[in-house]
Every structure is written in C-alpha cells, then in structure tokens.
Amino acid sequence: MDPIKTTKIAQSKLSKVDFNNLGFGNVFSDHMLVCDFKNGGWGQPEIIPFQEISLMPSAKIFHYGQSIFEGMKAYKDEDATTWLFRPEENFKRLNKSAKRLAIPELPESVFFEGLKALLKVDNDWIPTTAGSSLYIRPIIFATGEGFHASPADGYRFLVATAPSGPYFSGKVSVLIEEKYSRSANGGVGFAKAGGNYAGQFYPTQLAIEKGYNQVIWTDDNTHEYIEEAGAMNIFIRINDTLITGPTSDRILDGVTRKSIIEIAKAEGIPVEVRKFTVSEVINASKNGQLKEMFGAGTAAVISPISSFGFREQDYDLPELETSYAARLKDQITSIQTNIAPDPFGWRYKV
Ligand code: COI
Questions:
Q1: What pLDDT, on the 0 to 100 scale, is given for residue 210?
Q2: What angle do CA 283, 289, 293 make, to 5 degrees?
C-alpha cells in the first residue's frame, strides 16, 4: 500500500482537553481516517482533520441503514508505547458485519495500516491516566445514492477516536425485558449494525423511566433465556461457577466476552458457556446462590450489576469483597495496558 496521505489540522484542540475528567466518547481527537469504496473497489486511505462529512440526502445510509461499526481501545504504557487489544478480532468481526449487511469487505491493509498511521498522528491524544484510554470507533456506511431498496454502490470507511474515561459511573440496575427483543434468529444480532443499537433505545428509555439503567435482553422466541445486558454480553456467577450464553445469530461475539472466558479458565474458575434462563437466575437469587451478574464489552470492560427487576419485583445482588468482576477486570486491563504479562499473545504493539 502507498504511504498514507496525511493532512494535519491547522490548530490542535488538544490543549482544551481535561484528561483528568474524561467522560466517554464526547471529545474527539484532531484527525480521522477515511477511505472510500467507489467504482467497485476500495481506494487509498487518507488522514484528514476531524470534520463534518457531506452526503447527499439520497445517500442510502439515511434510508436503509447500511451502517456498521466496531469498538476498540488504544492504551499507552509507562514507556509511552501504544498497544491495541486483539485488533484482528475487530477486523474479522467488521467484515462479518459487512457481509451480513451487503457492504463490501474491507482489505486488511486499509484497516491495520490506516489505524497505525492514525494512532501515530494522534499519539498525544492517547490518555495515560488510569482507567482512561483512546476509544477507537471504526465505521462503514453507505454513501451511494438512490431510493431503490438495494445495496449502495458507494461506502465510506472512517475511523474517529475519542480519549475516554469510564462508560458507566455508579451502580447499574437492570430490568429483564419480556416484550421487546434485541435480535432474532436469522437476523443481524451477531453483527455490529448501527440499527441493532437504535432498536434498543426505546425499550431502554422505558426501563429508565421505571428507575433502571439498562435492559437485560431475553430471546425473542420464549423470553425465557437471558442473552445480553444492554449493549454488552452478560455473565452470571452461581456459587463459584461463571456462566455466559453461547454466541449465536442473536448474540454478539464480544472480544471482551471471549477474553474473560479464557482468563477465567486459566485462573481455574469453573466456566460454563451454555444457555441459562430467567427462572434459573431468579431461583439462584432466592436461595442465595446468585453471587454476581455483570456486563462485558469493550467500552465498559466489565460492568457489575447491583440489582435486577423482573415482573415488578427487584432482586439485589450481594456486595462481595472479592468478586470475579473486580478480579477479571483487573486482569484484563492489566494485560491491555501492559502492566501484566500477556500469556495469550493478545497485545498488539502499534
Ligand atoms: C463497546 O463496548 O465498545 C460497544 O461497541 C458498545 C457501544 C454501544 C458503546
């Protein structure tokens, strides 16, 4: 691939950022990576200042929602080396999502060379404060025009980044959802399609009105099986066993999810990847065997759930001194930030 053409911003915004008080994904770095698909092929990636994009009202993204994304993080260690975490998993999943939404697959070199060049240009935007990182958001959306309901003939791959702190602050209470569904067999639940998240907002708003923070998604067919927690995968701990559902058409193959499974197994924690029901969770809660419930995803890493609601009744999770959630979060973030050894070979030096 040719060297990536870079146009630098006239005046950096970096000095305006308070790195000690970062929210999540609301301050954006100086540059972005763009690459267009036109005339049947992907062109050359380019780095330009972070700026507005101009699209025709007839661009198909607005009409038929051909849009996918990824979530990744870059970390800087104390030697100022930048690390990514299992980026090849994000690349593979981006193209799995692309295929499902009839978007042309992206060449590996555009993804990796583009990302590395962008992280170099915006190196000073990668936070070094504990608990913070540079959240990376690769997206692909349809720029090709037409009202005909068929795949567009033009797309843009774009990577924007945001120095970010924690995704959630405080305790997370969730409502087990029995009416609305996040995904269905044969659908796009396994893909990171923007529309999957849009479809969650309304049921989540209803849960927030009832005093909860998030929705626990159950299967669309019976609403008996617990599948995901908000925009994250879900884990429960019954006695000492860690349980999470198997990936499927309906469940996202989360990078954090699969890493937690591997770390827990290596730690000797009994892990079961199997379907589990709402009744199993309620019964375990009633007889004191339900020790933990947590969400897992790139943005929040591990987000402990403090209580859940089901059919007008609330159930509290115990406050543990030594939780799997805290232990696994510490282990995965220590690997991500190059504080601990990386026995799995997951870190990727930029
Ligand atoms: C992530 O965890 O990175 C995600 O993609 C979820 C997103 C909605 C914040």
A1: 97
A2: 90
